[in-house]
Amino acid sequence: MNPKEMNERLTAWGWNEAWEGRFDASVKPGARKLVPARVTAQFSHLYQIVAETGERYAEVTGKFEFEAESRGAFPAVGDWVAAELLDGEPRAVIHAVLPRMSAMSRKVAGNTIDEQIIGANLDTVFIVNSLNEDWNVRRLERYLIIAREAGIRPVVLLTKADLCADPEAYVAEAEQAAPGVPVIAVSAVTDQGKDALAPYLQTGMTVAATGSSGVGKSTLLNWLAGDDLQEVQGIREDDARGRHTTTHRELFVLPGGAIWLDTPGMRELQLWDSQGGWQETFADIETLAASCRFADCRHESEHGCAVRAALNDGTLDASRYVNYRKTERELARLARKEQSASKRQLKQAASRGGRGAGKKTPMNKRDFIAAYDEE
Hints:
Residues 110-269 form the CP-type G domain. With 375 residues, the protein is an alpha/beta fold.
C-alpha cells in the first residue's frame, strides 16, 4: 500500500490537519515509533483501532494503566490515540490518548463514582426515540443534558414514524421539551426523513446514535448504510421495549463519508458533572426562576413566584418541572459524593505521610474491568 492510500484510510475515519497538529504536539519526537490511530470499537479493556496500515486489536501500556487517574482517562470509541504497531504481530499498544474535541459521558451504573465515556470527538449526537408505547419525553431531556454538557450538537430523531397515526403531535411535544433543537421524524420502511439528515452526515463528520433498546438505532445504521451492518431484533409486545442488539460501541463509515457511532441501548442514564448542560436544557425554567420576587425562592408557596404562576396557568408543563427538580437533586447528590470521595483520598494520602496528596489513586486494569458497565 502506497503512502497516499494509507493517508486516505485515516482520512476516511476523520483524520485531518487539526488532528495531525494535536498528534505532533502530544508525541515526543524520536521517543518511540508511534503512529496515529482511531479507536473504532471497545470490548471491555480491549480496543479495535484503525491505523494507516489497517485494523488491529490493541491494549494500553502498563504505564498508561498505572498513571490513569480515572476510568474516563482510558481510550473510548472515537478517540484518536498514539499507538505502537508491534512488528510481526497483528496487535498494537496504545501509549496516549490525544486531547478530545468533545466527549459525551455519563456516570457509571451503581454506586461507583466515576465517568463512562459514551463516545469521543463527536460532531452530532442523534437522540433516538421511537413513536411507540415506549415514548418518554422525560428521558429525552436527560440525553439533552449530557449532549449539551459535552458541547455536541443534539438532534432528536423520532423513529418508526410509519407506525404512528399522528407523528406531528410527537414532534411538537419533543420540540417543546427541546427548544431550538432539530426534531426529525424518520422511517426506514418508507424512507421518510433521510434528506433531512444529510446536513449532519457530511464527509468526515462523526455522529453518534444513542437511546434506549428497541428505538431503532441499528435499523437507522443499516438504512443509512444501505447494508445490514448490524443485527436487528424485535421488541417485546407487552411494553414495546427492545432487546439488546448492539452489545458494544463501534464506529462505521457510511457510504456518504460520515462516521457513525452505534451504541448499546442504555437501561439507565445517570448524569455526570452536567451542571452546564442541565441549565441549558431547562433554560426556560431557569429564566422563570430568575423572575421570582425573592432570589431564594423555593417555588413552593412564596408570593411572587414566577415558576408557580407558569405552572398554574399551564405555560410550564408540570412533568417537565418535576424532571427539572429531580435532575437538580441528582446532580447535587453526585457533587456531594464526589466531594466525599476526594476528602477520603486526601486523608488516605495524608496517612501515608503526604505522598501523593491531591492525586487520585490510579486505576489499574482489574479496577477498570470491574467497573465496566455493558449497558
